Amino acid sequence: PNTAMLGAIARAAGFIDREVLRKTIADALGQKYPSLVEPNLRTFDRGYHELVLEDFAPDGKYDWIPFTRFVPALGYANVPLGGTIINPGNTILKDLSPSRQGFIPLFHRDKCIDCGKCEMTCPDYCFVWEEGVDKRGRPAMVLQGIDYQHCKGCLKCVEICPVEALTMEREEPELVRRTSIELVGPPEALVAMERSKFHLYGEPESPGYWD
């Protein structure tokens, strides 16, 4: 650690216990680098004692603006009720779709390699997985699609996908209806929607779960 800077900060702050920091430095270095304990403590002490604190009067070049604390319009006393669902197992009740700004991630099963990067990146866990087999026939978790009820359209998954299996598309009600996969529901609801089964802005080429 930069013990000289640490000593100066402790002195400038005025509320940090100097002895506590000295003990912390000794404990941090004592086990692996015992020969460095004393030099670092001396450096800390010099930084603490040799710091020069000065107050400078305004030079008049700029007008002084007093600090004003920001006060939000809504607080605990007047914030509108709502926003929290207290029911046990309430995931099925949450709907993040109003947060979207006109675009959605569109999943293309034919390009997906099931790497899971989208799942790890998604802040709302809206990707639906099912037990299946990989391209070599081995048991694996296979991505089925997106439950758009829980998708707020942040598009982080589109950025992280290494094979462009997720693309940004303009949100259309029919597109969302035909490609959404239920995150919570009966097993038969977990139906993969292949890219070849629908046109982006037209009728599907073959029947799907929602037909």
CATH class of the largest domain: Alpha Beta
**Distance linking N and C termini:** 64 Å
| Share in β-strands | 5-15%
DSSP strand count? 4
Largest sheet: 2 strands, antiparallel
User: What is the average of the pLDDT values?
Assistant: 83
Order of helical and strand elements: HHHEHEEHEH
Q: What does this protein look like?
A:
There is one protein chain. This protein is an alpha+beta fold. It folds into 2 domains: about 5-50, no CATH class; about 95-195, Alpha-Beta Plaits. It is about 25% helix and about 10% strand. Strands 1-4 form a two-stranded antiparallel sheet. A two-stranded antiparallel ribbon has the order 2-3. It is extended and about 70 Å long.
Q: What is the topological layout?
A:
Layout: H1 3-13, H2 18-30, H3 37-49, E1 103-107, H4 117-121, E2 127-133, E3 139-146, H5 156-160, E4 166-170, H6 173-179
Helix pairs in contact: 1-3, 2-3
In summary, what is this structure?
The chain is of the alpha+beta class and 211 residues long.
What distinguishing features does this structure have?
single chain, 211 residues, alpha+beta, Alpha-Beta Plaits, two-stranded antiparallel ribbon, 6 helices, 4 strands, extended, disordered C terminus
